[in-house]
Design a protein that fits this description.
The protein has 142 residues and is an all-alpha fold. It is 74% helix and 0% strand. The protein is built from seven helices and no strands. α2 runs antiparallel to α4 and α2 packs antiparallel against α7. It is globular and about 50 Å long.
Length: 142
């Protein structure tokens, strides 16, 4: 966290690298939140039999699409945080998978803030949007 604050402090001479850093940090946070939203209803309850419940849920695209989206977004965000290439593509792929399945399943944008934060549609859109922001911002290698 100190590295993030140090990178944000200073002039705007290297703003592209800072935008990319903040976007990748938000991408990681949104991806972890999507993974929590996806796994928590299946994993919740007693620990005994949790692996069996996860195995049963693996047959459902309503579980697998957001899980794939969260994992790809997390991988992309971590790659971006370390300055690697291809992280934006993985984030866009993950956000697109979660967002696309939510649209296919007929999810709508909720009208309350709590429901908005728990919506696969909104969180997938945030992942895709911040992956795109990171893709179009500079790497800061000047």
């Amino acid at each position: 966290m100190i590295g993030l604050l140090e990178a944000l402090n200073g002039s705007f001479a290297n703003w592209g690298g800072r935008v990319r850093l903040v976007a990748s940090f938000i991408l990681v946070l949104a991806s972890v939140w999507l993974l929590f939203l996806t796994v928590e209803p299946v994993w919740g309850g007693p620990l005994e039999g949790a692996i069996g419940r996860l195995g049963e849920a693996a047959d459902s695209p309503a579980f697998m699409a957001p899980l794939f989206g969260g994992l790809c977004g997390l991988l992309g965000g971590i790659v971006l945080l370390y300055g690697g290439i291809g992280g934006s593509a993985a984030g866009i792929l993950g956000g697109g998978a979660a967002l696309g399945y939510a649209l296919y399943a007929g999810h709508t944008v909720p009208n309350t803030l709590t429901a908005l934060a728990r919506s696969d549609l909104v969180v997938g859109g945030v992942i895709a949007a911040f992956a795109l922001i990171a893709a179009f911002s500079g790497r800061g290698d000047d």
